[in-house]
Write a structure and sequence with these properties.
- Helices cover 0% and strands 55% of the residues.
- The chain is an all-beta fold and 132 residues long.
- The strands form 2 sheets. It has a 5-stranded antiparallel β-sheet with strand order 1-10-4-8-7, with no helix packed on it.
- The protein is globular, with a radius of gyration of 15 Å.
- The relative contact order is 0.41.
């Protein structure tokens, strides 16, 4: 079997840098999908102490006005991070919408120490490859 890597046909962008999240809402960096026909959103949880952490995705056609992704724009759903069972896990949700820009949002409530989370967006199916 031939082994193939994904380095030159994907582009990974950090939307929410790894950080310990406590109460509040953090909106990640916008990711431009121009030149790609697919994407997957990856949310990683490290250490978990307390609180409820809810990941969600925003989309935009112009990079200025963002709206929440409809259920029909996502292939799968994110589980709420609310217990130690969520520690050291990775969640993936496919993006099947038509908007150009994505942002990941993490909303945290009830946290004293919080949880360490991050989010990346992996763009794939490039119109022009190699990407790097």
């Amino acid at each position: 079997m031939t082994t193939r890597d994904l380095l030159r046909i994907t582009y990974i962008t950090n939307s929410l840098p790894p950080a310990n999240r406590v109460n509040g809402t953090v909106t990640g960096n916008a990711v431009d999908l121009l030149g790609y026909d697919g994407a997957v959103i990856v949310v990683t949880t490290g250490a978990y102490t307390d609180g409820t952490h809810v990941p969600s995705v925003l989309q935009s056609m112009d990079g200025v006005t963002y709206t929440a992704c409809a259920v029909t724009d996502l292939d799968g759903t994110f589980a709420t991070i609310a217990s130690s069972a969520s520690a050291n896990t990775v969640q993936q949700v496919g993006y099947i919408g038509t908007q150009r820009y994505l942002q990941v949002v993490m909303t945290t409530t009830g946290a004293t120490s919080g949880a360490t989370t991050s989010a990346h967006i992996v763009a794939g199916y490039p119109r022009n490859a190699p990407t790097q």
